[in-house]
Specification:
The protein is α/β, with parallel strands linked by helices and 225 residues long. It has one domain: Spore Coat Polysaccharide Biosynthesis Protein SpsA, Chain A (Alpha-Beta Complex). The protein has nine helices and seven strands; from the N terminus they run αβαβαβαβαβαβααβα. The radius of gyration is 16 Å and the shape is globular. The protein starts with a helix and ends with a helix. The relative contact order is 0.16.
């Protein structure tokens, strides 16, 4: 099924990625029309919003940096209000290659899933060792909380059906939001699928604050036990 028939919209949470967003938008324009692409500029001060507007996509601007989860929620609301049948999420820093969008759509439709999550190869040298460790540990913990196996709880490259987004309402606003959504979706009985993807970490600067974000993750998990 093509993206147009499913009415797929895309949300790209973006914070200070002006130097990389151009590459993402140029690729995604080959798959989705610009009116269905939403860049959430989460309080950037480097011209991220200007890069997005140059591609004539929809731009949502936060006046301050509110967190990735808050950016996603702003984008989800806009997409649902616009009548989206499914919403794709991918990062604006180039980590997620838009070339895999058709694969996500095929998995959602042909496998009859409600939610499809990118499945990265958690190995070095494709992924930094510290991220391999954190991803494996967090995925194990999230699997216990969800009551089902979640092989990659932190990959933000995803495709949600509208039905998931209208019923799953995360209460967090930062990086833990994506894990919370998986746990809530699993507990609600939604059918998950996994789409193998490549990721690129070359030249990236992480905005993760390890102490604060680890504490937020642990507080989130504590709510489910």
């Amino acid at each position: 099924m093509k993206a147009g028939k499913l009415n797929v919209h895309a949300v790209i949470p973006s914070y200070n990625v002006a130097d990389r967003l151009d590459g993402v938008l140029s690729k995604i324009s080959e798959v989705l029309p610009s009116p269905r692409v939403w860049v959430v500029d989460d309080g950037s001060d480097d011209g991220t919003g200007g890069v997005a507007r140059a591609y004539h996509v929809q731009v949502i601007r936060h006046d301050r940096n509110r967190g990735k989860g808050a950016a996603l929620k702003s984008g989800f609301k806009a997409c649902l209000d616009a009548g989206a049948g499914a919403v794709l999420t991918l990062d604006g820093d180039g980590q997620h290659d838009p070339v895999f969008i058709p694969s996500f759509i095929r998995c959602l439709v042909e496998a009859d899933r409600d939610l499809v999550v990118g499945l990265r190869e958690l190995r070095w040298p494709g992924m930094p060792p510290d991220r391999i460790f954190s991803n494996r540990v967090s995925s194990m913990i999230a699997s216990v909380a969800a009551g089902r196996r979640i092989p990659d709880s932190q990959c933000g490259y995803r495709l949600y059906r509208r039905s998931v987004l209208t019923r799953v309402h995360p209460g967090t606003d930062h990086y833990e939001t994506e894990t919370e959504m998986l746990i809530l979706a699993a507990r609600a009985g939604f059918r998950m699928g996994w789409c193998p993807v490549r990721t690129s970490y070359e030249g990236q600067t992480s905005h993760i604050r390890r102490l604060n974000d680890t504490a937020r993750f642990l507080l989130l998990i504590g709510k489910f036990f």
